[in-house]
Design goal:
Blueprint lengths: L1 H15 L1 H41 L6 H31 L4 H18 L1 H15 L8 E4 L2 E8 L3 E5 L5 E5 L7 E2 L5 E10 L4 H12 L2 H4 L8 E8 L3 E10 L4 H18 L20 H9 L1
Antiparallel strand pairs: 1-2, 1-5, 2-3, 3-4, 6-8, 7-8
Length: about 300
């Protein structure tokens, strides 16, 4: 019983003594200092990265703004992860007194074992590397891939973030990013079909549309050049279709199509060419014969 009491007294003296609290205070101070220095290093590094890319755009070796935004975000993420990992190792080694060497060796063996089971993770990282290296698409591009369509917000080594035009954000593993359609590299092409009733002359309708098309590049910056009239595309039951194509800025082909439809429709309506209505002919079996039919029967 005296042994237990002595141990309890020693424990209380150790807890109440100044040595423990001084050690705890020093440890907390070192942890706060390491975290504070890590935040400073990340902020300074981000500013340096921004200035490097800014000077790079002014130098002889220039890169596109799309690729610059992609590389800038990627390098900032790598810097952040590296600094945080180093800070954790310093806290474990210098503050908590953990033996980091055997821990890292064990983590390397465990990581190798996990790597064989985490094949999807390895595939995502390798795919992300090739997406960035080959410049398949960049931040700010409007793409369609894996059933997801929208603007690329961020490209990482493992995932890609895409925001659709309705506001949803999709996070895709890079291994699932296949058959990419990039609408932001080259100019878009807006295809517009205009329905014109058969009562209207084809040449007159095309002349009106051509006059409207010549004014569009000056009115709308989305349209690069004067839209081209391809001609009569289809002969329907109550109308014929005139097809127009317009070259637009990258990823503005849908907006350009809406502009062309609006402007063409307004002018056609003012010129007396209205949208054709569907025609329906009805026959009735019980309908009484007309006077023309009765006279024809009498003559026979």
């Amino acid at each position: 019983m005296e042994f237990i009491n002595n141990k309890f007294i020693q424990l209380w003296d150790y807890i109440a003594g100044p040595d423990l609290w001084i050690a705890i205070g020093q440890g907390l101070f070192q942890i706060i200092l390491i975290i504070f220095l890590s935040i400073i290093i990340i902020r300074v590094g981000n500013n340096v990265i921004g200035r490097v890319f800014q000077n790079k755009s002014r130098g002889p070796f220039r890169i596109t703004e799309r690729r610059e935004n992609t590389l800038k975000k990627l390098i900032k993420n790598v810097l952040k992860y590296t600094v945080y990992f180093t800070a954790i190792i310093m806290i474990l080694d210098n503050v908590l007194g953990a033996k980091v060497g055997p821990l890292l060796a064990g983590a390397g063996v465990a990581g190798l074992a996990i790597g064989f089971g985490a094949q999807n993770l390895v595939r995502d990282i390798i795919s992300g590397f090739f997406i960035i290296f080959e410049d398949q698409f960049s931040v700010g591009d409007y793409i369609l891939t894996s059933g997801v369509e929208g603007t690329v917000e961020e490209i990482g080594l493992r995932t890609t973030k895409i925001q659709s035009w309705t506001g949803e954000q999709h996070v895709l593993p890079n291994g699932n990013v296949t058959q990419v359609t990039n609408y932001s590299i080259h100019n878009g092409l807006a295809v517009v079909d205009v329905n014109v009733p058969y009562e209207s002359d084809v040449g007159n309708a095309e002349q009106i549309i051509d006059d409207v098309s010549k004014t569009l590049p000056d009115k709308y910056e989305e349209i690069v050049r004067v839209p081209e009239i391809i001609g009569v595309q289809t002969l329907a039951s109550s109308h014929y279709v005139i097809r127009i194509i317009a070259e637009t800025l990258p990823s503005y082909q849908w907006a350009g199509a809406r502009i062309v439809r609006k402007e063409v429709q307004d002018v056609l309506y003012k010129e007396g060419i209205e949208i054709p209505a569907p025609r329906l002919v009805m026959y009735s079996r019980n309908q009484e014969p007309t006077s023309l039919e009765l006279n024809r029967d009498k003559e026979v």
